[in-house]
Amino acid sequence: MHEHDEHSPQGWDRRYSSAERLWSGRVNAAVAAEAAALHPGRALDVGCGEGADAIWLAGRGWTVTGLDPSRVALDRAVEAARAGGVDVSWIHGKLADRLVAGPMDLVCACYPALPLETDPLQQLVSLVAPGGTLLVVHHADIDVERAKAHGFDPATLLQPADVVRGLGAGWRVVVDEVREREVAEGAGADHHLDHVVRAERLPD
């Protein structure tokens, strides 16, 4: 991946540097809804950005690792966690770098930019403990032509439907639905529909 690519570490740093805060700073509604019924354990937030979801989970008893390719975003996440009085382990890198070791009781990937060519689903499921949960959330109202104009094709990135199709034996899809989202601020405010997939890895 080249330095000018939208989803390269340098591209993400440029995007985060363009605003004092890129996202809303609040937990994603799908994370709050789907994790509320889970017993806290080890959690991984893939593409954690400025840390809102990871910090929310940590505040509810989870032992959380946040992974993101943007150093700018992680510096903000560190400060937000400190302000919130919670401990989170932050790792600078991409899922494909294989910097995180499982097993995790919860693996979240919200609005991820995970290239299909790197086999991200295999990497995600390999990190989930037996009995654990995989949560993937993405925009259900992506304007494909607009995305291509910004330098990427959504068809080349992991989508929730890919997760549903790709999970094999040993998994149970608990949630597979499109739901409305209300976000009034931040870079995602122009999206109003989420595709939410929550799957459980069956116990060995």
Provide a brief overview of the structure.
The chain has 204 residues and is of the alpha/beta class.
Main attributes?
single chain, 204 residues, alpha/beta, 7 strands
Please characterize this protein's 3D structure.
28% of the residues lie in helices and 26% in strands. It has 204 residues and is an alpha/beta fold. The chain has helices at 9-17, 29-35, 52-58, 71-84, 120-127, 144-149, 160-166, and strands spanning 42-46, 63-68, 89-92, 104-110, 128-139, 171-180, 193-201. The protein has seven helices and seven strands, in the order H-H-E-H-E-H-E-E-H-E-H-H-E-E.
Strand count, sense and barrel status of the largest sheet are:
7 strands, mixed
Fraction in beta strands: 25-35%
Helix content bin: 25-40%
Number of helices: 7
Structural class of the secondary elements? Answer: alpha/beta
Order of helices and strands: HHEHEHEEHEHHEE
Report strand order across the widest sheet.
3-2-1-4-5-7-6
**How many beta-strand segments?**
7
SSE arrangement:
Blueprint lengths: L8 H9 L11 H7 L6 E5 L5 H7 L4 E6 L2 H14 L4 E4 L11 E7 L9 H8 E12 L4 H6 L10 H7 L4 E10 L12 E9 L3
Parallel strand pairs: 1-2, 1-4, 2-3, 4-5
Antiparallel strand pairs: 5-7, 6-7
